[in-house]
Amino acid sequence: MSRISSIILLTTLALGGSLGMRRAEPVEAYHLKLVKSEPLKGDTVTSPKVIRLYFSMKPALPVTAIKVFDAAQREVVLGQAAVVAGSKDAVEVTVAQPLRPGAYRVRWKTASTDMHPIKGEYGFVVR
Question: Which of 73, 86, 80 has its CA nearest to residue 50?
Answer without folding.
Answer: 80
